[in-house]
Amino acid sequence: MKMVTAIIKPFKLDDVREALSDIGVKGLTATEVKGFGRQKGHTELYRGAEYVVDFLPKIKLEIAVTDDQVDAVIEAITTTAQSGKIGDGKIFVTPVEQAIRIRTGESGDEAL
Greatest CA span in the chain, whole angstroms? Predict the structure, then answer.
């Protein structure tokens, strides 16, 4: 099992969710987060005063999948969330040692 963590732009969430659903992903966790990478934030103008926005709003997706689904999930996220502009985000894949469904006690791939 793997945990796929993706940081994407907020307006891409619905498109990515639909793409993941289309390939058979049964669930995901989405969290509103703030951060910066190469963008380094940007400046905005408010009531005539210029100020720097260091942390930009993003969405963090966490998807637990079986090993054979990883490549399809990465492809779905990449093609859907990509705009070609700076700040599109990142995808991280980490191993998951164990997953347990609390309601039934199922573990491993069956818990997903």
Answer: 58
> 59 near 81, Cβ under 8 Å?
no
Output the pTM of the full model: 0.85
β-strands 89-95, 49-53 pairing: unpaired
Closest CA to 59 of 24, 20, 99, 2: 20
> Tokens 């980490």, residue?
94
CB atoms < 10 A from the CB of 50, how many? 8
**What is the enclosing helix (H) or strand (E) of 47?**
none
Cα(27)–Cα(63) distance, integer angstroms: 7
Residues 28-72: tens digit of each pLDDT: 999 999 988 876 666 667 777 776 777 889 999 999 999 999 999
Give the helix ranges, DSSP H, for the chain: 13-22, 70-81
pLDDT in tens, 84-104: 888 899 999 999 999 999 999
How big is the CA angle at 28 (ends 10 and 97), to the nearest 5 degrees?
A: 130
